[in-house]
Amino acid sequence: MQKQNWETRQPPQLYTSEQKKRRDESIWTLIQGVLAPTQFIAFAISTVLVIWYLWTGDGYGLATISVLVKTTLLLTIMVTGAIWEKVVFGQYLLAPAFFWEDIVSFFVIFLHLAYVAFLWANYLSEQSLMILALVAYFAYIVNAGQFLLKFKAAKTQSNLGDSYA
Questions:
Q1: For residues 106 and 78, is the Cβ–Cβ distance under 8 A?
Q2: In sequence order, what are the residues at sequence separation of 6 or more whose Cβ sits closer than 8 angstroms to the Cβ of residue 51?
Q3: Nearest to 165 by CA among 57, 24, 4
Q4: Do residues 70 and 42 make contact, with C-beta atoms less than 8 angstroms apart?
Q5: Sign of torsion, CA 116 118 120 125?
Q6: I need a surface site. Which of 118, 122, 148, 150 has the fewest CB within 10 A?
Q7: Tens of pLDDT, residues 57-80
């Protein structure tokens, strides 16, 4: 059995040369690059508004609108991300390189859509809806962290040069 030297072991390849080329040439990469920080800003503002409502009891309408805006951005980034995955990897979702990010994204979307459904059905109290929004936001943060780690891995792969990519 051969001993593995962990210091020289290269990380798993995220993109093939062809996938990297498609990623770099796709308009969908730019769209994702704009939508991701936009969604994060909406998340940050909405989190403050939701917490403000839970803390003070004021601002329910504004907090609700902010959650709906955040949900709309989430759905938009998911659809455009699926198109991006199709362009880069040849399948709309669950490409091996982004399998777990997509799985967690489904859970995040489920929580956001549950909020919308319960709001529309007038099924939960205002406070319960806002708590559900915060649960959805926690899942979003986990998912955003996954994507940031992938972004870092892609950057590392690019820094290793085309011989590796």
A1: no
A2: 134
A3: 24
A4: yes
A5: negative
A6: 122
A7: 999 999 999 999 999 999 999 999
Dihedral-angle region of residue 15 (phi above 0 means left; psi in -120 to 50 means alpha; beta otherwise): beta
3-class state of residue 162 by DSSP: coil
Looking at residue 139, its amino acid is: A
Dihedral angle sign, alpha carbons of residues 38, 126, 135, 77:
negative
Question: Given this model, what pLDDT does residue 165 score?
Answer: 42
Average pLDDT, the chain: 90
CA 165 remoteness from chain centre: 24
Q: What single-letter DSSP state applies at residue 96?
A: G
> How far is CA 139 from its chain centroid?
9
Hey, what are 119's tokens?
């709001």
Task: Report the candidate in 102, 116, 106, 28 with the shortest Cα–Cα distance to residue 64.
Answer: 116
* Tokens matching residue 35: 């939508």
pLDDT tens track for 75-104: 999 999 999 999 999 999 999 988 999 999
**Residue 97 DSSP class:** G
pLDDT band at 152 (very low <50, low <70, confident <90, very high): confident
